[in-house]
UniProtKB/TrEMBL annotation:
UniProt keyword annotations, A-Z: Magnesium, Metal-binding
Stretches assigned to the Mandelate racemase/muconate lactonizing enzyme C-terminal domain: 135-240
Protein's GO biological process: carbohydrate catabolic process
Residue ranges of coiled coil: none
CDD domains from the UniProt entry: MR_like
Cofactor(s) in the UniProt record: Mg(2+)
Organism: Natronomonas pharaonis (strain ATCC 35678 / DSM 2160 / CIP 103997 / JCM 8858 / NBRC 14720 / NCIMB 2260 / Gabara) (Halobacterium pharaonis)
GO function term, MF aspect, one: magnesium ion binding
Protein name: Homolog to mandelate racemase / homolog to muconate lactonizing enzyme
InterPro entries: Enolase-like_C_sf, Enolase-like_N, Enolase_C-like, Mandelate_racemase_C, Mandelate_racemase_N_dom, RHMD-like
Amino acid sequence: MQITGVNQYHLEHRLEEPFHPTWIPGYPQSTHELELFEIETDAGITGYGASPSFAGGLDYETPLELFLTGEDPHNVDGILGKLETVNLVGPRPWHIEMALWDIIGKDAGKPVCELFGAEQRAIPAYASSGEIQPADERIDYVEQRIDEGFDAVKLRVTETDHIETVRAVRESFPDLTLMVDANKGWAVRVMEEPTEWSFSDALEFARELDAVGGVEWLEEPLHRHDYDGYARLRDAVDVNIAGGEFNNGIHHFREFVDRGSLDILQPDAALATGIRRAVDVARMGEANGLQFVPHTWTNAVGFAANLHVMTAVGSPWCEYPMEPPWTPDVWSFMLEDGFEHDDGVVRAPSKPGLGIEIPDKVLEDAG
């Protein structure tokens, strides 16, 4: 089998109203945009991968064709070597590797998770918020998620005094599993500069979480490359420390592991590693007593890829993006069937490959 072509589509979906993600400070996001890549083969099998995007998009279909045409999509390691070159001089290309596994799974007649020796299983999902909201609104949000069947919620914070919101939610829901994300690992600088935390800020906040109690983890309280700072913080507090969603490549995760920086590794297959290397990171973490719970907040194609990885490696939780108006129908708009949870649990698709279908109309409308 050989790759015969690459097609790129810039997809855009308008939200009913803007929302204000913590990772784009001061920016009212009103659209969901992504770059969808379609990898064609001489066997008539097509694979899909996708990355987040922005207004105007980022066009790199032509160089990808030069790198990929004529390659056997089963040669994942060889193609990853070529994608390393793309990573060196252009955009991160790890989402392209998703499309290879989509093709391989379709060729084998198996979902991707089965290619890694796993069976279908239910994964508990936590509702992942994306905004800063006052305590009363966040309590209403949590009540809605519990009514929908979720047993866990992740709160966003950007300032140390947001501990009051965490405390209020904990007091209102003493048995709820809570995660907290500080979003200090990275930010998109469009409107405002992000608020950064010093080590002292992160330590103060983490100790407050220890006092609140019952918090599953504190996510990205420091910059994503501050391996030693994370190690110091992890040694000083009881709450688990998580991170790595947007680090670039498996070597960063070796640093996290070797320096004892994290309790929970979170590489997003669409952003940080691709599928195979995400599994490698999970196995490396397992060998060192660490958990693996990847970031999934990109789009439904990336969600599918991460869900297969989580199934393959036995992740205890799945991040489920939910911050109305950012709802599953928004982040799944490009699929025939979206990713609705079932009473707070999710399962990887059972169809071959990634198990997703892109309607023809979605591609036609993209032009």
